[in-house]
Amino acid sequence: MKQSTLVFTFLFSWACGIAEAFAPSSCASARLISSTQILSSSNDWMDFLKFGGQQPSFDVIEKTKRYTSEAGYNTFILKNIPTDYYDDRYIFRGPIVGPINRKDLIDSNSAFKLENAFPDLDRQTFGFTVDPENPFRVLFFERWIATHTGELNLIDLLKAPPTGNKSISPVMPFSIVWTPEGKIIYEHLTTAMDRFEGNTKGKVAVFGLLETAGISLNNGIGDPVLIFQQKLNRFLNGPAQVFSKDKDIPSWWKSKARGGDPNDM
Predict the structure, then answer these.
(1) How far is CA 109 from CA 63, 76, 90, 98, 155, in A?
(2) What is the largest distance, in Å, between two alpha-carbon atoms of the chain?
């Protein structure tokens, strides 16, 4: 929160304390407006993705369906998705992954070689809808289904022989923001809709696959051990990263939270 906002909030609270001594609740409605204004101002930077109130010249849902039908998307081999889908300012963000640009995301995805362990992975997508607050943003759901039939080897750090186990993740929300030029600038996923669904102990995406292979990793936001590991890996420039270097993050992204850091705005 900016210093000017803090000063305003202090003076406002002090003045209301005096006023309410004579007229209780006189500041209640003003407090509501003030707190709403403060909350909305903290999210203004994400309004960049609304592109000044423009309207898409294309069908965002059909374009998203076409994108998620790409073989590279469906099998999670990201290097196989045509690069012309993406804007140069692309960012991916998940609960504990990101902000990460497209190049770094592909490098990390390729280093994991998850397709060797889960060759039949199917990212089932459904429920496409447009965000009523942003016509360039499409929201939908995914359920990952795969069978662990190959050896899992994550850059020689984590290994698991094939178990034959079937992985069924809980449903998770996903969103994509297109630019007015029809390029993807932002992708985002979050945690399970219902953590008791499926057989991955509530974990989704890559963490759900690892759980199926017998590798149970903590993926909690704010976990100090996880955050330390992620930032150490970033400092050492490991072959698979969960967030990009500051200099490689597009300037429209304003949050300083990295990886599993708690929200800073």
Answers:
(1) 23, 8, 16, 13, 11
(2) 74
What is the C-alpha to C-alpha distance for residues 62 and 68, in angstroms, rounded to an integer? 10
Alpha helices by DSSP H, the chain:
3-22, 28-41, 60-68, 71-74, 102-112, 114-117, 205-212, 224-235
Q: How far apart are CA 2 and CA 234, in angstroms?
A: 29
This prediction's pTM: 0.82
Q: Is 53 left (phi over 0), alpha (psi -120 to 50) or beta?
A: left
Residue 235: φ, ψ to 5°? -65, -40
Banded model confidence at residue 43, pLDDT cuts 50, 70, 90: low
* 14, amino acid identity: W
| DSSP one-letter code for 244 | -
Half-sphere exposure of 215 (CA within 13 A, CB side): 17
What tokens appear for 34 in the block? 């003030």
pLDDT digits (tens, 9 = 90+) for 176-213: 999 999 999 999 999 999 999 999 999 999 999 999 99
How does pLDDT run across 48-66, given as a tens digit for each residue? 999 999 999 999 999 999 9
